[in-house]
Amino acid sequence: MDDFVVAGTAYSSRLLVGTGKYRDFDETREAVDASGARIVTVAIRRTNLGQNPGEPNLLDVLPPSRYTILPNTAGCYTLEDAVRTLRLARELLEGHTLVKLEVLGDPRTLYPNMAETLKAAEILIKEGFQVMAYTSDDPVAARQLEEMGCVAVMPLASLIGSGMGILNPWNLQIIIDNANVPVIVDAGVGTASDAAIAMELGCDGVLMNTAIAAARDPVLMASAMKKAVEAGREAYLAGRMEKRLYSASASSPTSGLIAGGAKKTA
């Protein structure tokens, strides 16, 4: 499969995965390994990356030498909290600048607050961060994020953790068709077919956490998601056949058929 490129770096996998909600760090490592992901996103406010000495450190099981750690602002409801969190992440990760920005609107739906997101993105970009921005599926908001300098836009498929899949493929298609930066579906994927559909639409990648971590067998689901993303990308590159409503088309040749029935003799 062709490489996925974001912020000038090529990755062999178009599946990005989160690290929350697993039973323990061992299960996290096994699921990430099975997913084949090269970019792993981490909630700085909820995960120890060294800021809590004496506690288990995620970087011991998912070392930055092997994975690109993508710090995110999960749990932030103001631009001030989001900006402060990513500044901390840069210190913890020794100057790392590739980040995932999300500013949430309310704790029940976790829907993005786009006004705060746009303001936070502007501040972070001016400070030298490479911002991958979680956004609603609003094509205008996605375009604004790209125009201000975000290196990727990450529209939701449906609400975070809902597993409802892609509810508005038409808006996603508009975003994809007009973007000049990677478009990564983020939030709402529930199973492998959701990931495949996102990739068939032309998304550059898919980010997920709950769909894997909340599965009955997270490691097996991670493997399924890897295959789904690869299959969806190949189908997109191959180009699906045209849909023909009420127009049947035989799959076998219709010329040169053997005449049916025996010829009668006198």
Helix content: 25-40%
Q: Mean pLDDT, nearest integer?
A: 90
**Biggest sheet record:** 5 strands, parallel
Low-confidence stretches: none
Number of helices: 8
Succession of helices and strands: EEEHEEHEHEHEHEHEHH
Count of β-strands: 10
> Beta-sheet strand percentage?
15-25%
Broad shape: globular
What's the end-to-end separation, in Å? 65 Å
Structural class: alpha/beta
Radius of gyration: 22 Å
Query: Strand sequence of the main sheet, in spatial order?
Result: 5-4-3-10-9
How would you characterize the overall build of this protein?
The chain has about 270 residues and is α/β, with parallel strands linked by helices. The protein is built from 8 helices and 10 strands. The strands form 3 sheets. A 5-stranded parallel beta sheet has the order 5-4-3-10-9. Helix 1 (about 25-35) packs parallel to helix 8, helix 3 runs parallel beside helix 4 and helix 6 runs parallel beside helix 8. The chain is globular and about 80 Å long.
